[in-house]
Amino acid sequence: MTIPDSSGYDFLMGNGSIQLPCKPEEERRVVKELTAKAEANLREGESYYVISSRWFRAWKRYTGETESDHPFDVCFSESKDQSVPFIEDRPGPIDNSDIVVSGEDSREDDPQLRRNLEEMHDYELVPQEVWEKLLEWYKGGPVLRRNLISGGDQHKNFFVEVYPLCLRLIDSRDQTLTVIRLSKKSSVEELYSKVCQLKGLEREKISIWDYFGQKKHTELVSSSQTLEESNLQMDQDILLDVSGHGSRTDSTGNSLAMVPVDPMRSNFSIAGGPTMSNGYSTGYSSNISGKKILSSSHGDMEDAFDGLRPSTRVESRGLAGLQNLGNTCFMNSALQCLVHTPHLVDFFLQDYCDEINTQNPLGMHGELALAFGELLRKLWSSGGTSVAPRAFKGKLARFAPQFSGYNQHDSQELLAFLLDGLHEDLNRVKRKPYIETKDFDGRPDEEVANEFWSYHKARNDSIIVDICQGQYKSTLVCPTCSKISITFDPFMYLSLPLPSTANRSMTVTVFYGDGSGLPMPFTVAVPKHGYCKDLNHALCIACCLHSEEYLLLAEVYEHKIYRYLENSDSLATIKDDELIVAYRLPNKAEDCVKLEISHRYKEAERKMFLTPLVTILEDPQSGVDIDVAVDRVLSPLKRKSFTSSVTIDDNGGGALDSTANEDKMDICTSDLGSTIQSVDDREPEGIPCRELTFQLFITDDNGSGCRPLMNNSPIRRLRMIKVMVDWTDKEHRLYDASYFKDLPVVHKPGVITKKTKQEAISLFSCLDAFLKEEPLGPDDMWYCPRCKEHRQASKKLDLWRLPDVLVFHLKRFSYSRWLKNKLDTYVNFPIHGLDLSKYVKSNDASEGSHVYELFAISNHYGGLGGGHYSAYCKLIDENRWYHFDDSHVSHVSESDIKTSAAYVLFYQRVKQESVATNSQSSDR
Predict the structure, then answer these.
(1) Catalytic member of 329, 468, 543, 784
(2) Which of 150-159, 200-209, 884-893 is predicted most confidently?
(3) What pTM value is reported for the model?
(4) In the annotation, is 766 catalytic?
(5) Which of 343, 456, 747, 868 is catalytic?
(6) Fewer CB atoms near the end CB (10 Å): N or C, the chain?
(7) Do 740 and 637 contact (CB within 8 A), yes or no?
(8) DSSP 623-642
(9) What is the mean pLDDT of residues 865-871?
(10) Contact, 337 vs 871, CB < 8 A?
(11) From CA 414, how far away is CA 517, in angstroms rounded?
């Protein structure tokens, strides 16, 4: 790509005059184009490069990198440090030192990334072409090249393998350890070649064993099978045996003859029926030569199935832990909750081969269900020894590439995928019929609900639907025509918001968009974990907002509008030391052009000052319309001595009385401006020409490029126009700018901060918040069939039909472009006797009781990224609770399971006989 000539764009650096490759905006354009080109032509094996986010953010600030995701589609800077590019903002050489391992573990020729880094937070990934261009412009390093690989059997997803597979090769001859790094997509044959090269050995004389957990498992036969398909994990051991060098031993120290390992064959699969013939039999995996390779151990604690083991519960009764394979605590937590679900235990310990659906295109050909069944049986038949779920993780990675690798994930996200995947693999419906749903048309709810449920069951019928799926009623009301739409939708779990009982004090300065008054700060109390819609509502009441007005919230930084706030934005994104403003605008402003006004001194450095303003323009045609709007919003600042001395001449021009200014400065005051009609009020011809009141400049999206605005400058109709007002001595004499200075911060903490005890809410209050009526968000508009337009309808949910196993997901995590946040609020949830009768709107008595008992909890401890998951599960037969923390399992008292770490709650329905018995006992 040709870089435009940048002559005349020299910068004086610390070491003298240096000619930059191109201007900052050109760098931005080049990188953007190269990135788009690379992303449009993704191919496996292509190179990507890891760059420190710290350096890359500095480059973005320098080049004015922007994003368009605020309400008016106007770009704003990604960082608050964004400003007009000056040379001191140009970053130095590329510096990746903050993301690579340092010290003894570091090698200059092979730098390694620090573990547990987060993309977009710690590092960025750029295509090879972008890296080469950045390296040409800035030099630096170290170079961290990675490959693009694909994952997923059904739908190929491309992703960069940031952390290649790291294997610890142990030489059985002298027990020396060598670290080998290869892509998980590398073949076993490539692993053999690498080892032979490192050790200087002949291929025929060596064999490599899967030595996970310092125990011999399967011999890795040289083939095209990938390391991922061989279930090799990050940082695990592999054992090198060399023929002719003494005797070889097994994991117990017993001598082994040099004979091939041949698995014991079984005619039955884990499901209890004949082995599957689709090439994915449960005990074996085939290689390129057609030989069978043992993929499970005989006697170890792998999760692959041994056909000779009985599929019955043993003395341990499900007290086996799950080994952590590298940031897999999220998976272990969710799995323990599921494998201790009584209905699933009964199902997967029986013969379920007839339930497997190998033809469902939405499923995983039955493999996910088989892998889960194998793991469940192993956990219920392994005694108290922990199990390494390597085979299950391998299957999961094939069908859900987002869970491949070794990054921390969300246990609820895994649970949602796993339940859905199990359902499709066990769906009894082989061919799903097409069904066109009908509107309710005023029919009774019972009739419509049963109709929707029958439609759902005609396409979805599995053990998961039988025990885990319920139904809720969704009511939408159009705010314009009052059209009501009622649907009955299935659910697998309920994601409950955590309402806050704690308040937060916030101060916001309210400005009049029409210039009818001076700005006024208001301090309001809002929910601590609320949203901007709560702040907007409180401000509307505090400032007595009229029904024909609305408030536009914005954050101000360095005298510019940094971002506009939407009702859906979390208040957690607003810090106490930030400056928040609100503009009172008429409701019709939604259809008008918005004018954003910034201010600066007319000096050599043109320094910005004061608070930016926002007003509206109705069909602006020329610079005169903008000038009139600016004059209008500044009118409250007019000094009295000047407003009283203005005269209007017959020609529509204005002049100051000689007592105020003998030189009759060529200015127009607000009184004069009010005599000039805006474009929509005046005749199209015969408009008197006049000079502008202010020195105005149209600015670009970043506020960095300016061009003068003339009285006859044509105005292109946009959703937002940005202008800059240059303040001269004349403006300072005319206006009192002190009202637009020194905005109050959101909250100024006192000297003494009183500690409050931990906030607590009930599960019922979370359920109330989930079911309450609220308007849809602007990004989730509903198409009204009567209005024939998308409307921001109000939505109300009601529970209609409850499943036998009811799962509650407590929404502790909130994500936005600005912040990731976790709520550690303590939720008080019932362990026994959770009665949901008052929430269920259906009167169908055949459904069963609405009383539930808790049997499992997925817990999350710590913050985002670096947290830890565990599980509390109840063994129903014992009526005792246990703590499953990866491979560690311990008894826990029932009184200790209710903590602020509770994340996903699992309840099962209490049978009606039990409810009646308990009721009779309580009546005595």
Answers:
(1) 329
(2) 884-893
(3) 0.64
(4) no
(5) 868
(6) C
(7) yes
(8) HHHHHHHHHHHHGGGB-HHH
(9) 84
(10) yes
(11) 54
